[in-house]
Design brief:
Length: 239
């Protein structure tokens, strides 16, 4: 199996705060091998979203190194230009937002196809379009949505929309999956099903997975659990 991993080393991020600066991440260290899930817990405003933003290349930290090991080699995400960062997000990082943010006019299969075509030329060959459609349908099958390919978001339940969200993040075979509060808008049963799905896809696709959650119910299923407090990340001791 191709080796992938995320390694965050001594990473610090600050924001302007009046005459001074507010520390969002304080020398954070983290290692997530491919096929494993590291869960991040902690109160609101503790730095969890900032950590997701820097590993997703959406924000550049003040200092530190964020190494993403992909099938094509290892890249330091902190050194990329905006254009390079966008290219890495398209090719190697899958982001599952707290809200699915699906496009209302597109069907489930079209949501995935649109993700696959980002950054590519406008017109693809018929064979490429067919290959993309096949892959999108296979991913929807994998997340339990066979038979729902032609449904638009308004025709899907909250849990189904989140499953489309996860499948969409997998379209480009990411080395890194970044997942933000995937169960926050779901009831207990649907939330448990989504967590089981994330566990399965992270291992099946060998993606290094970083998951932020307030729900401690499922933490015992994770490979590692960390707590974020005032920008400092520490191993969490499950009670």
């Amino acid at each position: 199996m191709t080796k992938t991993a995320l390694t965050v080393s001594e990473t610090t991020l600050t924001y302007p705060d009046g005459a001074g600066r507010l520390t969002a991440l304080n020398e954070v260290n983290l290692h997530v091998p491919g096929g494993t899930i590291a869960a991040i817990t902690g109160p609101s405003g503790s730095g969890k979203s900032s950590l997701l933003a820097v590993v997703s290349t959406l924000i550049r930290p003040d200092s530190g190194r964020i190494a993403l090991e992909t099938p094509d080699g290892t890249v330091d995400l902190t050194t990329l230009t905006r254009r390079e960062a966008a290219a890495v997000r398209r090719s190697s990082i899958g982001i599952v937002f707290q809200q699915p943010n699906l496009i209302p006019a597109l069907t489930a299969v079209e949501q995935l196809e649109a993700m696959s075509h980002l950054g590519q030329r406008l017109f693809n060959s018929r064979a490429e379009r067919r290959e993309t459609r096949t892959k999108a349908m296979e991913l929807l099958d994998a997340v339990g949505l066979s038979g729902h390919y032609a449904k638009r978001p308004a025709q899907l339940s909250g849990g189904q929309r989140q499953r489309v969200n996860i499948a969409r993040a997998l379209m480009n075979d990411p080395a890194l999956l970044v997942i933000d509060e995937p169960t926050s808008a779901l009831d207990t049963e649907r939330g448990a099903a989504v967590i089981e799905l994330i566990l399965t896809v992270a291992r099946t696709h060998n993606a290094a997975t970083l998951l932020v959650t307030h729900d401690r119910t499922h933490l015992h299923q994770m490979n590692a659990v960390y707590n974020m407090t005032d920008g400092t990340l520490t191993p969490d001791v499950l009670s």
